[in-house]
Design goal:
Distance between the termini of chain B: 34 Å
Structural class of chain B: alpha+beta
Oligomer: heterodimer
Structural class of chain A: alpha+beta
Helix content of chain A: 10-25%
Strand content of chain A: 25-35%
Distance between the termini of chain A: 12 Å
Order of helices and strands of chain B: EEHEEHEEEHEEHEEEHEHHEEEEEE
Number of helices of chain B: 7
CATH superfamily of chain A: RNA polymerase II/Efflux pump adaptor protein, barrel-sandwich hybrid domain
Number of strands of chain A: 9
Largest sheet of chain B: 6 strands, mixed
CATH topology of chain A: OB fold (Dihydrolipoamide Acetyltransferase, E2P)
Shape of chain B: globular
Radius of gyration of chain B: 20 Å
Order of helices and strands of chain A: EEEHEEEEEHHEH
Number of helices of chain A: 4
Largest sheet of chain A: 6 strands, antiparallel
CATH architecture of chain A: Beta Barrel
Shape of chain A: globular
CATH class of the largest domain in chain B: Alpha Beta
């Protein structure tokens, strides 16, 4: 089964979110990478300072096989984007938990909703295997 | 695994790109048993086949195969086929799985009172062994004589103890064989080939790699690049349309297309901007006006570029013409290039 990293939170769209003091960084999970295969393009449709809304797309990720939307797991403001991915999308294949895509400062009162902890996400993946 | 035309098909085994590269550099084995096989027998079987296809079946000799389109009376494409002449009165037509019911019905209607027809698809498996080492692998399991087959020729063989028919054809742009055998013998044949190829870089390959390989080789995919709304002349398949034939279904319409010149043409292109063209994306002129449609597109693992096929107005189809691809709202620059994108060196 695809690698799940403890200590992160997970969405049902196979993204991970890591909460620090002021911001939440977002990437895609090893399961998502397995499904996509060799990643060839990461399109981030946002820039620093842009507002994002929970559940809305902030970009797309493409592999040879297909493309997939990237969804913001929280409402807030983009504080940083990982510009390295523009020229090196393969970083996502190499280590998807290091290859974060965006960092978001949650709006006042906003928090991650409908996320799973590592154990619950592993259980979700186990159910998908059947 | 994904459902496809009633079959459960593997999209990938180890990984699309790895499988793609194995086929280009060593060999890959595909299970394409979903394809339809129709037997036509009788003294007039060849005549029937020739009347329903755009290419010229009368030039075939026993043991020779031919790529062709089958059109309707409007000159648009019912399917692309390979027809095999086993003997003067014994022919095989291989059609796309998604078109099997349609093609069987179409041929059955025209075969009435002309020849016998049997849809043999359910009992027949088809394995495609493709790549520069394909013939060497076949030779290791009893198919040494297959190396003498010319391209688009076929012969009976016994591979790994399984009786089969091997054809020097494929859908990858590489040398190789497509091997027909009885369905119940297919696992034995598959295992024998995989075992013989284990030390030669052979990998099982899925539908994903099949699609990128055929795209690089600029081979049309029915349902994407060609269908009943397209004619073979605009689709770049004029080379399989023999208007000098006395008659065939769709000829009159295709003569008119040829005389008037097609209004649009299938082009191959590279996305030079940031983006990957996909089936269905609009193609725009440089002013941003929609002028065409992408029918196939993906990164080309061997060519190392983002490539695609699509229809553009004839006036925009010259090599070097620049245009835009609307990648879900992002406009990426593209340029019409010569095809195939990939051609094997030997």
């Amino acid at each position: 089964m695809a690698n799940v990293k403890p200590g992160l939170q997970y969405t049902k769209d196979h993204e991970w979110a890591k909460t620090d003091e002021k911001e939440i960084t977002v990437g895609i999970t090893a399961y998502a990478v397995d499904q996509l295969g060799d990643i060839t393009l990461v399109n981030l449709d946002v820039k620093e300072g842009d507002a994002v809304e929970a559940g809305k797309t902030f970009g797309t990720i493409e592999s040879v096989k297909t493309l997939s939307d990237l969804f913001s797991p929280v409402s807030g403001k983009i504080t940083r984007i990982n510009k390295d991915l523009e020229s090196k999308p393969e970083l996502v294949n190499e280590d998807c938990y290091a290859a974060w895509m965006v960092a978001i400062e949650p709006s006042a009162g906003a928090s991650l909703t409908d996320v799973l902890d590592a154990a619950a996400y592993e259980a979700l993946l186990a159910s998908l295997d059947h | 695994m994904v459902p496809f035309a009633g079959f459960l098909m593997p999209v990938q085994y180890k990984g699309l790109v790895e499988e793609h590269k194995a086929v280009r550099t060593a060999a890959g084995l595909f299970d394409v048993s979903h394809m339809g096989e129709i037997d036509l027998r009788g003294p007039r079987a060849g005549e029937l086949v020739d009347g329903l296809i755009t290419n010229d079946a009368t030039k075939l000799v026993d043991g020779q195969a031919l790529y062709t389109c089958a059109c309707n009376e409007k000159g648009t494409i019912l399917d692309d086929l390979i027809v095999y002449r086993r003997a003067e009165a014994d022919w095989l037509v291989v059609c796309n799985a998604s078109n099997r019911a349609k093609i069987v019905a179409h041929f059955t209607e025209h075969a009435k009172g002309v020849c016998e027809l049997d849809d043999a698809s359910d009992g027949i498996a088809l394995l495609a062994l493709q790549g520069p080492r394909a013939l060497e692998i076949a030779a290791a399991i009893g198919g040494a004589e297959l190396s003498a087959l010319a391209s688009f020729h076929f012969a009976k063989a016994r591979l790994g103890g399984v009786s089969c028919t091997a054809s020097r054809t494929g859908y990858t742009g590489e040398d190789g064989l497509e091997i027909f055998c009885a369905g119940e013998e297919a696992p034995k044949l598959w295992d024998a080939i995989m075992e013989a190829g284990a030390s030669k870089g052979l990998q099982p390959a899925g539908l994903g790699a099949r699609d990128t390989l055929r795209l690089e080789a600029r081979l049309s995919l029915y349902g994407n690049d060609i269908d009943e709304t397209t004619n073979p002349i605009e689709a770049g398949l004029a080379w399989v349309v023999k208007l000098a034939k006395p008659s065939f279904l769709g000829k009159d319409a295709l003569v008119r297309v040829k005389e008037a010149g097609p209004s649009r043409k299938m082009v191959g292109f590279e996305v030079t901007g940031r983006g990957i063209a996909r089936h269905g994306y609009p193609l725009l002129d440089l002013a941003g006006e929609p002028v065409g449609i992408c029918t196939s597109g993906s990164p080309g693992p061997t060519v190392g570029k983002n490539i695609g096929l699509g229809y553009l107005p004839a006036a925009m189809s010259a090599i070097g013409t620049k245009f835009l691809v609307d990648c879900r709202g992002r406009q990426a620059e593209a340029i019409v290039v010569k095809t195939p994108f990939y051609k094997r060196s030997t």
